[in-house]
Amino acid sequence: MNIPATHTFLTRLLLVPIFIGCGSVPSVAFAQTGPSAAAAQKASDQIDFAAAVVEYDSNTETVTAKGNVIVSRDGYTLRADNIIWDRKSGRVFAEGAIRAIGPEGDVAYGDKIELTDALKDGVIDNLLVVLADESRLAAKRGARKDGIYTLDYAAYTACKVIDADGCPKKPSWEVKAVKVVYDPSKKRVVYKGARIELFGLPVIPLPFLSHPVDAKAGSGFLVPSIGFSRNNGAELEQSYYWRISENRDATAAITAFTGAAPLGRLNFRTLEKNGAIELSAYGTYSNRINTSGTSTPVGADVFRGYLEGAGKFQLDPNWSISASGRYASDRTFLRRYDISRDDRLRSTFAAERIGDNSYFSLAGWAVQTLRVSDRQGLTPIALPEIDYRLRMDAPIVGGTIQLQANSLAISRTEGQDTQRAFSSAKWDLRKITGLGQELTLTALARGDVYHSDENASTLTAIYRGDSGWQHRAIFATAADIKWPFVGEAFGGTQILTPRVQMVAAPSISNLNIPNEDSRAVDLEDSNLFTLNRFPGYDRFEDNLRITYGLDWALRKSDFTANINLGQSYRLSNRESIFPDGTGLSDKASDIVGRSEFRFKDLVKLTHRFRLDKDNLAIRRNEVDATVGSRGTYVQAGYLKLNRNIGPTLEDLTDREEIRLAGRVRVARFWSVFGSTIVDLTDTAEDPTSISDGFDPIRHRLGVAYDDDCLSLSLTWRRDYQPVGDSQRGNSFLFRLAFRNLGV
């Protein structure tokens, strides 16, 4: 019987009596006694079938379908040029453009395929399985039983096997194994006798390899990390990733060294409904060297470690709590094991409420110093710090009023203790005049109360203040006017904005008050027009001054430029409280400015400077530049602070340094990269410096390969500054990462 299928729907109607597994007569009889049960049986037994031509041989009970054949049952679909169904044996044979699609989205291609009529089980020749994440499994022969694939002498890769032009290409890496088992329901591939081939060369044997094949991470071993450092010798790190649940995971790692005891690491992360937490811990046993530079051990085979954690929870739309903590067993552990180069570790907590017009914070923090010359007992502990602010519309005069209340308690185990509380009210009014001028009026009133003791333990005299109870009142007013002029220039739009500000504040008792948060003061373009050019709250600028400046901007389709220049002049004869060298100690301040230029996405140049008011000598010169594309670029940074500051101010030392970094793409996927930091400080900038004016800090040079499925790099780094058991010398790191493969 030859049935030309002129319409797919007609074909399906004609084949329904054939493709019901129990035959048409029993089905009809069953339907008369139990319609709902019969419908369920019909849905489970029926094969959905579509083809251009269908032939049925009643003698052999075989169905032959030809021409774009589609067969589906229970979520499994088979497409082929020709399909033969033997109803007696329950076997389905297909050939020509075969595609077998499973309910999980995996697609199997082959030359010939033999399946059961449930379409779950069978054998495929020249099998290619394309997984849901587009990675591929290939084998000469494979079998599928209960939806699980078993492949003999197979290969797996997550790389693309065709290029942008549609031409075949060799994958960067592939895993070859004696046997491969893929379970679509578990989204996992398990190998036996596996090895990784990199650019066609077998490089890593992996006898117990398994990995997930979807976007979700799965438990398993990660790619080992190989390196060498002057401190610990050759090193090999092996990590295991544990997918605890959909919102929690953990990573455990052991790093073995040839020159030190192994280092253990544990990381835990959880993402909850209202927040997240991340915790890390490191630990080992090793010798500790005195940070004074002597070779005398201060501990033989003692425990050394590091703890770090952070978390934040949003309790409701307004309230949140957060905390972070960092603690190291000694001052050189982080540097020796290349975990961090921070010289201070800060631990914090905060509870905050942010409303439409209000803010509340209850916070605290503590610091562990890792600096060789610092005494831990002099580092501050803030507990608590309370801050509340309320913003409201100002009646009658207009504008806004911000009310603030703040308190802070700072304690030290071996140094000065300070407690502070203040309340303030600040009024701001912004208007646009009829001539287009932007006028801002500000008024501030604040009252402070301080208490301190053990003030003599603070090394810098101007930071101490008087012991016992102190109080002060602060009043300040300001008027700021900007007048922008807009016009065409150089094929674009230019904006020229003169700006003038007047600030008046009566004499304030500053030096009687301890200075905890207003120490690192320096005139910059960012604070030139602020009401108080001291950072923090412990110092307030009390004088009558005028500040003037000019902003110029140019906007074009592919180019932008911004230039700012300004200076201030003190109108009163009151003695300045600013230290020498800050640019603000005389009646006329130094001249500060900033310029920024951008050309498309290829060039970005930022220059910040400060010029001496008397002789235009450069007191601050800071340049940051990036030139190039994403694949090939050069970054340069230069900083020189030559402010003539004496050694009495610990927070304001002069220095000079240069930073260089770059990457050059030498081929489509290959690139060379490097960076360096050089300390150029000498006695001209810092009289206490023992540097010769060219003191390298760190160099880095490497080569990297990156494509759609593989990243590898080899990096050489040299450190020049030894501290304790963190020695100067060379380090090498080899990094290898495969897409979809933890290993």
Automatic annotation (TrEMBL):
Keywords from the named record: Cell outer membrane, Membrane, Signal
PANTHER family (UniProt xref): LPS-ASSEMBLY PROTEIN, LPS-ASSEMBLY PROTEIN LPTD
Top-rank taxon: Bacteria
Protein's job: Involved in the assembly of lipopolysaccharide (LPS) at the surface of the outer membrane.
BP GO terms, sorted: Gram-negative-bacterium-type cell outer membrane assembly; lipopolysaccharide transport
Subcellular location(s) per record: Cell outer membrane
Cleaved signal peptide residues: 1-31
Domain LPS-assembly protein LptD central: 190-290
HAMAP family: LPS_assembly_LptD (MF_01411)
Assembly, per entry: Component of the lipopolysaccharide transport and assembly complex.
Name the UniProt record assigns to this protein: LPS-assembly protein LptD
Chief localization: membrane
Coiled coil location: none
Domain LptD C-terminal as annotated: residue spans: 303-670
Phylogenetic classification of the source organism: Bacteria, Pseudomonadati, Pseudomonadota, Alphaproteobacteria, Sphingomonadales
InterPro entries reported in the protein's UniProt record: LipoPS_assembly_LptD (IPR020889), LptD (IPR050218), LptD_2 (IPR045659), LptD_C (IPR007543)
One cellular component term from this protein's GO annotations in UniProt: transporter complex
Protein family (similarity comment): Belongs to the LptD family.
